[in-house]
Every structure is written in C-alpha cells, then in structure tokens.
Specification:
Number of strands: 10
Helix content: 10-25%
CATH topology: Porin
Number of helices: 1
Low-confidence stretches: none
Shape: elongated
Length: 201
C-alpha cells in the first residue's frame, strides 16, 4: 500500500513538473520580409525594400503580451527638389527601438497576437550617385506601429507571419552644399510583411 502511494505521489510530481516545463512565457522572434511605402507625394518604392525584426515577448498569465524589439528597414524611394522637377532616388536606412503591448489568442496549435508598438527611430537618407553633391541626411523620429502576428507552435518553436503598419513624421529641412532646396517627405507610412521563426522558453 505504501509503495502504491509513493508511486502515485511520484507520478503527480512528474506531471506537475512537466506542466511547469510546458508553460513557456518568454519568446524571441526573428523575422525577414519586405515593405511598401506611401509618402506625401505618393512616390512608390523603386524595388524590393528588405526588413529585419528582432523581438522579445513576455506572455502574461491572462493572455496579455509585453515586448521590446529592434526593427530595420532598407527602403528605396524618392525625395524631390522644391525648385526642380526631379524625383531623386534615395535609400533610407531606418532603425527603430520599440516597446509593444498585445494580446495572444490561442486556437489549438495556432495563435494570433494583435499588438500596438511605439518607440524611437533613426533614419539615414543617402541619395543616388548622380546627386552626391547633396549631403547625406540624418533624422530622428517617434514611431507608432500597430500590427498582428499569426503563429503556429511546434514544441518550443513557432513559425509566424506578421504585418505591421509604421507611421512617423520627419524633419523636412536638409543641410545642403548646393543652391537647390531638397525636400524630404514629411509623413512616412510603411506597410511591412514578415515571416520568421520564434523560440519559446
């Protein structure tokens, strides 16, 4: 009888330990993708604009999620001359650090997490070689970024697809070494689409 009781206790402890191990409230995500852009002058992107996201999430017991992440976009678009007719090809290296708040809905092995993120960013605007008489422009900004992530869990891993909308305003003044006045788009709106892999622990 004593042996049976000990076996039952051992089994219960084993089940409790496994359940505790399966409760993984932390995750790190790495995503790759591309983005489209809408500007004040409706200039489209010129070609593929790659994005990279590295994000940490902490999932709370009530389903809420808090997180922090680094987001990079290498965007090829256009700026324009106030005193001319040229749309000037421009590459924007966009770096941002964001804090996020969301809610995770679990549907079997699938999950969906809508969230809102906000943070600070830094952009470097580099003109094409034909316009290298302009100085390279640097700017800082505040960014707002709502989004949603759809994931599928496989043990400790999660494959995911995500969308986020990025909105921020830039300083339109540019330091120049020429007589032309160069105008940056004041309002930036990006639509980013990523796929990637997450690790839960």
């Amino acid at each position: 009888m004593m042996k049976r009781c000990l076996l039952i206790v051992a089994l219960l402890l084993s089940l409790a330990s496994n359940a505790q191990q399966e409760k993984r409230n932390n995750a790190v995500f790495l995503g790759f993708g591309s983005c489209t852009i809408t500007q004040d002058k409706s200039y489209p992107i010129k070609d593929l604009s790659p994005t990279i996201d590295v994000v940490y999430n902490r999932f709370l017991d009530d389903g809420f999620m808090v997180g922090a992440g680094y987001y990079f976009k290498n965007i090829n678009h256009y700026i324009y001359e106030l005193n001319g007719n040229d749309n000037i090809p421009c590459t924007e290296g966009n770096h941002s650090l964001m804090l996020s708040l969301g809610y995770k809905f679990n549907i079997s092995a699938f999950n969906i997490t809508p969230y809102i993120a906000a943070g600070v960013g830094f952009a470097r605007y580099k003109l094409s070689e034909d316009y290298d008489f302009y100085k390279t422009k640097y700017d800082t900004f505040l960014m707002l970024s709502p989004g949603v992530r759809l994931g599928y869990e496989i043990s400790r891993w999660m494959v995911f697809a995500s969308y986020n909308f990025n909105y921020y305003k830039t300083n339109t003044k540019v330091d120049l070494d020429s007589a032309f006045e160069l105008i940056l788009p004041n309002k930036q709106e990006y639509h980013s689409f990523n796929i990637g892999l997450g690790y839960m622990f």
